[in-house]
Amino acid sequence: MHYMKNVLSGNLDKFVEKDKVLRVPGIPKRILVTGGAGFLGSHLCELLLEAGHEVICADNFSTGLRRNIEPLKRFDRFSLVAHDIVQPIDLEVDEIYNLACPASPPHYQADPIHTTKTCVLGSLNMLELAARYGARILQASTSEVYGDPQVHPQVESYWGNVNPFGPRSCYDEGKRCAETLFFDFHKAHQVAIKVVRIFNTYGPRMRPDDGRVVSNFIVQALKGEDITIYGDGSQTRSFCFVDDLIDGFIRVMASPASLTGPINLGNPGEFTIGELAEQVIELTGSRSKIAYRPLPVDDPRQRRPDISLAERELGWRPEVELAAGLVRTIDHFEVLLTQSDEFMEVA
Ligand code: NAD
Ligand code: UDP
């Protein structure tokens, strides 16, 4: 974090040799973060504010939480716009991080048409805004663009294996179409784009009812409930701690204009879901038992990012090991649990 704060504040003197691709960003910038009340968005807003920028968070609070942005209100450079990006908005900004979109399968499948609209119309609206004001824009794309991958680990040049009309398609195809729009705006209107493909990221501020595997397992373990493994638990994922990912976002945004992406950001450590369950049980000291549940339709068998592009171009590599990141995430949920009555109260 110390390093990131120097990067963000432009105090790069002692870091320039370490990482030649970083440029000194102008301070302060006016930055729009869509989805800023969500898990990743709130961490990003906080880091940008700490670095001295003016941050506007636009969020429709479909999965985001007001308590995530509560700590940000101490900055008078922070403002909140309750807005659904499916509708256009006019804000003069220097940079846009387009994070608005539900990310957990139960959440993005709850209203699949709105998920597709958010990915496609939302991206279109943000790109038009970027084109109008000459803003640089980063798209939070996803490893889901690779679908159930037949190339392993996943490299950016792999086109993926995606079902166009399954339960995950609103998200997977929506994000793929968003990438198409980003690259077409870049070609047609010279918009400065950055497309990052995020692999499973976890950490404090995930919702207890988020439905993704890390939060589910930790909440179940802390409450002494069964740990629900979908399928036989042999499917794999690679888990990136939130601080590492946000560091990657900032580096990508600050990179030379020629680096448009797509660029993978994720932790290359690969674990089976069964191994994750064991680690969570061990780290929480829980007496929870494993309970096997049906595997969801189109659940990808394996996931691991090839991050050689990010390593080469950004000098970026995740630093937080899974066990260390889990401990910090468990701490977060333990605090929520001690606020007992409010544990499952999420709004
Ligand atoms: P999240 O659900 O915590 O945050 C999403 C935020 O977007 C929420 O605050 C939500 O209220 C807001 N939102 C959703 N639809 C909106 C709309 N139409 N208009 C305005 N706001 C809207 O999820 P997250 O994990 O923080 O993910 C953030 C972004 O990163 C998403 O775009 C997601 O697809 C992407 N991503 C995340 C992961 C991950 O592992 N966390 C992996 C791949 C991609
Ligand atoms: N999963 C699981 N139990 C849960 C939640 C998820 O076994 O309670 C599995 C899920 O089937 C998938 C993996 O964990 O194989 C990761 O799921 P998640 O929803 O976190 O992310 P995604 O599937 O989008 O990578």
TrEMBL record:
SUPFAM superfamilies: NAD(P)-binding Rossmann-fold domains
Protein name: Putative UDP-glucose 4-epimerase
Enzyme class: isomerase
A Pfam family it matches: Epimerase
One GO cellular component term noted in the UniProt record for this chain: cytoplasm
Predominant localisation class: cytoplasm
Record keyword NAD present: yes
Organism encoding this protein: Sinorhizobium fredii (strain USDA 257)
Key words, A-Z: Cytoplasm, Decarboxylase, Isomerase, Lyase, NAD
Classification via InterPro entries: Epimerase_deHydtase (IPR001509), NAD(P)-bd_dom_sf (IPR036291), UXS-like (IPR044516)
Co-factor(s): NAD(+)
GO biological process: D-xylose metabolic process; UDP-D-xylose biosynthetic process
Ranges of residues in domain NAD-dependent epimerase/dehydratase: 31-265
Source domain of life: Bacteria
GO MF annotations, alphabetized: NAD+ binding; UDP-glucose 4-epimerase activity; UDP-glucuronate decarboxylase activity
Source species taxonomy: Bacteria, Pseudomonadati, Pseudomonadota, Alphaproteobacteria, Hyphomicrobiales
Cellular localisation: Cytoplasm
EC numbers for this chain: 5.1.3.2
